[in-house]
Amino acid sequence: MNWLRRRIWEPLVALLKTGLSPRSLAWSVAVGLALGVFPMLGATTLLCVGAGLVFRLSQPAIQVVNYLVYPLQLALLVPFIRMGDWLFGVQPLPLSLSAILASLKADTLGTIVTFWTKIWHACVVWALLALPLMILLALALRPVFETVARSLQEESA
């Protein structure tokens, strides 16, 4: 718990102390989490930067959450792919490293196209799940951060 407090909670509270609004912080955290689990490896940092710029959110908060959820992104990759297979009614492929390497050796271009399609399907599933959950998370976090901001104002008064 001490690690979570030092690495997550205290940096977020520090952002409130700098004048970031609770609303902006709630949306920054929610966007960082939602985009941080996007099933296309290597794309999340740029997506977070873009979303932060477009919606004028806190880049530090978005990126902290984005980097913290990286293990979750990896853990959700296969479930997103499997849900994409189900959603689009396609045959699931074995996703073991040996099966992927054998497939690449047998038909490199075909394997790349197949996996690109699987990732695209996973991205659709992500959009259907993560985006509504992001909105709910932002709405749930806002009162928490408002309470913290009020207590910070009372401490400084």
Summarize the model shown.
About 85% of the residues lie in helices and about 0% in strands.
SSE series: HHHHHHH
Unreliably modeled segments = none
Mean pLDDT: 91
Structural Rg: 19 Å
SS-based class:
mainly alpha
* Main sheet record: none
Give the number of domains: 1
| Strand fraction | under 5%
**Basic shape:** elongated
How would you describe what is shown here?
The protein is mostly helical and 157 residues long. The protein has one domain (2-156). Helices cover 83% and strands 0% of the residues. It contains seven helices and no strands. The chain has helices at 2-17, 22-36, 44-55, 59-68, 70-88, 97-106, 108-156. Helix 6 packs across helix 7 (108-156). The longest helix is centred in the last third of the chain and has 49 residues, at 108-156. The protein is elongated, with a radius of gyration of 19 Å. The two termini are 29 Å apart. The model has no long low-confidence stretch (mean pLDDT 91).
Task: Give keywords.
mainly alpha; 157 residues; elongated; single chain; 0% strand
How would you summarize the topology of this molecule?
Elements lengths: L1 H16 L4 H15 L7 H12 L3 H10 L1 H19 L8 H10 L1 H49 L1
